[in-house]
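Can you give me the bound-state structure? Components:
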Amino acid sequence: MDITYHPIGVIHTPYLEKAPYQPVESDEGEFYLEILPEYVSGLKDLDSFQYIYVLYHIDRLTREVSMKVEPIWAGEIEVGLFASRSPLRPNPIGLSVVKLLRVDGNRVKTTGLDVFDGTPLLDIKPYIKDLDSKADANYGWVEKTGDLRHLALHILGIPHAY
Amino acid sequence: MDITYHPIGVIHTPYLEKAPYQPVESDEGEFYLEILPEYVSGLKDLDSFQYIYVLYHIDRLTREVSMKVEPIWAGEIEVGLFASRSPLRPNPIGLSVVKLLRVDGNRVKTTGLDVFDGTPLLDIKPYIKDLDSKADANYGWVEKTGDLRHLALHILGIPHAY
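Here's the bound-state model for the whole set.
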């Protein structure tokens, strides 16, 4: 069964050759979603949300997909692919939660997005407080690595040695 | 540009003809993701997470996609499609945050999923506390409708008149 999608736009980031592992609230350069003309009217009221989900096609990976991964920052721990946020997935759909800064015509300006410049955009969804923000969520196996501080550095985008 | 994906499994729910609008923490019937054999080893460690993201292909809709939508519970408010969680989207990728109850072989048992039985599964991702749970998220335009209570009923899956 083939499921075929088409980009609704393109993501612009300062990352031409290297992207961070997770979204970074960064002021280094611009991050914005550029929407195709036929979809621009669908952006109405989007700017009433603090956060949005950005869904995109991870198109720059050529390595083979493996069902076990070793997250680079987690030491020698091997976990199942679906227990990870690795971009190398059977269906390489990227998902990021970012702050919406401004909607300006066909451009949706956001905080840092961990993708290459030119990444095909698939969808934008509002992130709605009760539906999406789970106060009792946990860190799963990440907690076992004792490296929550490392994860936090990634999340905050603070440069650090590996 | 065509982007082609293939299901990694199928979603089982009690909803054969009618599905709720948003995930419901329901005990009425079973909700589980059935994973294809070649992907089962990718489920390792998934059960260390409280919540997961489920991504799926919304395959049962035949109505036309419109860039403006009137959410059924929001009265006569018209909002942009991307400011809504309407299933009628240019790329009908569904996204739900659900509680993971148990992983049993090739089955991932979850709390309520607002999809039809047989929906093609595209991806599973761990929902990681700091990355995905935004305490300062808001309700966007939903707040303006004064109908937060209604939204809450949907979220809690409490039956109510429209």
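A couple of observations. The mean pLDDT of chain B is 87. Residues 9-156 of chain B form a domain with the Elongation Factor Tu (Ef-tu); domain 3 fold (CATH 2.40.30.70).
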